[in-house]
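Entry for the shared binder. Reason: the reviewer on the internal report wants the predicted structure included alongside the sequence.
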Amino acid sequence: MNMKPINTQIFVSPQIHPQDLAEIAQQGFRSIICNRPDGEGADQPTFEEIEAAAKKFDLEIRYLPIVAGKVRDEDATDFGALMETLPKPVLAYCRTGTRSATLWSLSQAEKQPLADILSQTKAAGYDMAGVVRRIANGGRTPTETAEDARYDVVIVGGGAAGISVASSLLARKTDLNIAIIDPADVHYYQPGWTMVGGGIFNAADTAKTMGSLIPKGVHWLKSAVAAFEPKDNAVILDGCRVVKYGRLVVCPGLKLDWHRVEGLVETLGKNGVTSNYRYDLAPYTWQLVQEMQGGRALFTQPPMPIKCAGAPQKAMYLSADHWTRTGSLGNIDIQFMNAGGVLFGVKDYVPALMEYVERYGIDLNFFHNLISIDGPAKKAVFEVKEPDKDIRRMEVDFDMIHVTPPQTAPDFIRVSPLADPAGWVDVDQSTLRHTTYDNIWSLGDVMNAPNAKTAAAARKQAPVVAQNIVSDIRGHSATAQYDGYGSCPLTVERGKIVLAEFGYGGTLLPSFPRWLVDGTRPTRAAWLLKERILPPIYWRAMLRGKEWLAKPEKISAS
């Protein structure tokens, strides 16, 4: 038997036989639903045979036969009613298990988010792409037209990557009919939150209304994406609206998975627990830093990949600098709790960072991953996975803790046909075109190219994607390539930054002559770039399609 769990309440399987019932009962099942009509196959036992065997083991059993490929709306309703009343766990079966998985998916449409339904069925080995519109429509067959809107280019995500690529596209081809799909009202300059947490920027200066930034002429669809149907060139929105496209750009960012750390959500913003990864919490970071006169301060970093790998350290260095200036550093025990095994992934920048680690008296704790937190008790628990050692857990007291949350691709991406096995959008790392669907591109934090997930990376990627889409529209092959560029301005003290700029494989890719900015050393010039120059470049250039220091690199002829 091949019984696959969708969750603890429902398992599905291919055809079962009377002799299987003893094992089914032994494994703890209390109910069975048959979704295969009698007589569908020559070697198929009848429902009465299965029912008679089930009764010997006191198993509840129901017959809800479904003709292959013809799951009706009322069938899903009936299946949902059985799931409400039958004792759990339930085993549902048909010829392959697909009809049963489909019935369960449709029955849960108004009870669970679409991404959760798709995730559970996918984990069980069943692809629900064929009924995704019905699930999005509350489990009912849509009666509206199969197409609510159509655009030349549809962009999923209105963050730094999405707005930039829209502007870069229009700069190259002004007559494109473009839509951006994003439900958010506010657009944030997220690189500024480190500076908010360090008392340098005001939080309000890092936010603008989404409507004020959408390029003129671009349609803004203020909705969430429910699913993708790339074979039909369609994006399904919440409410089952269908948007068709000629070309698709996927850049919704990533998901900050706060819930993966037990107890974290309940204590964020109080009890000394903060994070610069949230707009409303960055000011609390600065408040805690100012108030702290002594005790232990923890700064955590989860496993990669994460948005801006240097951000956990930036918060730590700026905090330590403030404590140095106020004379309280000697009373504060600073601990860097890093799930990884190195301070920074590009070795050329490590010596300069280590000088500050030593200056501030920071203890480095590698292979320490935060798994739970008790805010009122001010205790954090870390899982320690050191090489060649047994995994252990360690509890650490704190007075202040800056948490970097675990990060994943958004749920609707992870369960989509666009995702690689790890859940990220699968692209060619040079052209940023999808590896399977040739009219889809991706950029920003959500795609799987092995580059740093930073706004600076998106600034370089947007022109590449725009150039290659326009080339495709004109019937040409890709003409621009992305070299993996990413930048991480490491704020090691107030007034100085180690400007890390690198590409694929850790290759250094400095934007300025070494005499102006030596990226491997802390400089005031790099600080001025971060504090004074980069914010206006972001708002006035990058988001408006002005590609200063970001012209796409041409693909060289072989």
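Summary line for the report: The longest helix spans residues 455-473.
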